[in-house]
Structures are given as structure tokens and as C-alpha cells.
Write a structure and sequence with these properties.
88 residues, alpha+beta, 2 helices, 5 strands
């Protein structure tokens, strides 16, 4: 489950650390039981809404149903986050 508190703290960490592998490593250390990945906003399907919007990046939920990882809109069943950087 991804709570509002996790989203808020994760966004603060990403804003401080920047994008890419560095922020993913920090997020994994903070929440070792969750999955994290970084990508470009361009890699996210336009039909999905971010779980958290910030200046320069968005956070999307990762669900793990059916044994495959996929983007999700369900915070209750989410098992991680995608950090999607927004190119200006």
C-alpha cells in the first residue's frame, strides 16, 4: 500500500536527490519492501494520472497483481512507485 505520507516523503526525497539511479537508491533504502524505478514522463501512457505531481517530475503507482508489474491507479494494492521526470 502506498499512503499519502509515503508519496509526500518520496516526493521530497526526489526533489532533494534529483532523478535517475541516485534517487531510486535513496528510495529503496528508505522503503526496502517497495519497488522503485525512474523513467521519463514520455514513457508513461497518457491515459494515466499521476498519484503525485511535483515540479519537474510525477510519481505513479506500481501494482503487482497477476504476478506482473504494471502501472496502477489503486494505492491500496500498489507495491511501488515510478519517478517520471518531466523534460522542459
Amino acid at each position: 500500500m502506498i499512503t499519502d505520507a509515503i508519496l509526500t516523503k518520496a516526493a521530497a526525497l526526489v526533489a532533494r536527490e534529483g532523478f535517475g539511479d541516485a534517487c531510486v537508491s535513496v528510495l529503496r533504502k528508505e522503503w526496502p519492501g517497495l519497488r522503485f524505478v525512474a523513467c521519463s514522463e514520455d514513457d508513461i501512457p497518457a491515459r494515466l494520472s499521476p498519484a503525485y505531481e511535483a515540479d519537474g517530475f510525477n510519481l505513479y503507482l506500481v501494482g503487482g497483481g497477476e504476478h506482473c508489474l504494471a502501472l496502477s491507479q489503486d494505492a491500496e494494492s500498489a507495491i511501488g512507485l515510478v519517478v517520471a521526470s518531466i523534460e522542459a
